[in-house]
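Task card 7
Instruction: Convert sequence to structure tokens.
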Amino acid sequence: MSERHSQAALEAIIDIAPDGVIVLDEAFRIVRYNRGAERIFGWSEADMLGEPLDRLLPLSMRAVHRGHMRGFASGPEEARRMGERRVISGLRRNGEEFPADASISRVTVAGERTFMVMIRDVSERKRAEDRQRMLAMAGWVLAGSLDVESTLATIAEMPLPLLGDWSVVELFTDDGRARRASAAHATAGVDLAGLTSATASALPDDLRYGSTARVAHEGAPTVITDAANWLDTTFPEADANAQARALGASSVLVVPLRAGGRGFGALSLVRVSPGSGHTPEELTVAEQFGSSAALALENARLYQEARAAVRERDELLAIVSHDLRNPVNAIVMLTGALMARSDAGAAVPVELEQLEAMRGAARQADGLIQDLQDVSRISAGRLRIDARPTAIGDAITQTVELFEPSAEAADLELSCDVPRELPRVIADIPRVQQVLSNLLVNAIKFTPPGGRVHVAAALDDEGQYLRVSVCDTGPGIAPDDVPRLFERYWQAPRLLRAGSGLGLFIAKGIIEAHGGTIEVSTTLGEGTAFTLTLPVA
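Output:
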């Protein structure tokens, strides 16, 4: 092959090389710049001929680079890999910095020195290494906390910026809503409060394509290019939608969070730059991260459930030891008194009043045991009611009449307004009477002498539910206490263990098992009204 052909072949090889090949003269100015370099840096050969090499480097590296080049030019080495201890940085035409591997060689022909620089863009390799490092860290970082809120925040932050510019983690609650956490990368001054509310608006019943709920249900990660549709589906609330649109979105990778064969949430990773998307490699990494994230959340949930079970056990033991002791002690004292009055072999006379006291104590103990059993059934979702179409007016009236002696002893006016023409409702009468009895006991207990307790029943405006209200003129309930009224074992601090704290929890469970609701309205110093609803037959 002639020298001319060899030169042409060499030029062709340099041109088609995927790496950047840059030839410099003795003053380190560019005299040859191949197509690979054009693809890597974005500058054409015509743009770069005669330019110094350090124009392709970030400003912060140029002075150091000139020193290295002068040292290499005057040294004994014929070739050197630049940045031997670390990856160097290149500078693209658009101002973007990127990691690169580079090497330089020196050739002297006819006394003239020429330098040849080989540049390889290792951005994708670096991203792959970073993604694998992130996956390796995910396991032990996520395992570092068993708090659900902390784990949610970590899941939102860890994949950024490798897999997205901002993210949203959603956990779907039993009532069909989404509990959120969110994070954004390099968005100083952006307030994410609108995206991280404790619960977002209700999820749509129809699991639309690309919705996070559908991805969680189907169990396969999805890349959504229709970002506008995703924004509207995920953030239907106006304020949150406006906040999300301000952050921007061009491509959304939605990863399901699944454990134990069920989908309970989704992680959305959002890219902002126009035209930027998610690669198949990123989808694979995100899916692996989603598996670790789901496992961490499931572990946190199980841990919190275990702690709640221990707490419930302790509360149960406290109730049993405190509230069950009173009736048991009463029975022990009464029977002890009877035994003390007996002589050897002689019959002991028992007064009717003593029998009634023992019977009342036994009923009190049995009532507490029944309440504890009801709490257990309600908590496990196994409370059974025998609901059937029935007239309820007489049952309400009879329940109120049972409390007339108690109201009279407390110097209270007890009244009842139940129309005769009430429609039949779907109800378990003994269970409804149990709820009314609980509400009346509380109303009479906390209403001061001279007050009034009133029971009323009427249809709601649509005629679909019967509303039964128990109103009193007591001291009312503090606003801070209202949200916790129906919690298991909870009592307002001012009550100082006025009961077991189970009554309203059981009442709520019974009424909801009927398909109804129970609510409270109260005004401090004026009184309280509890209202329950039952479906009309």
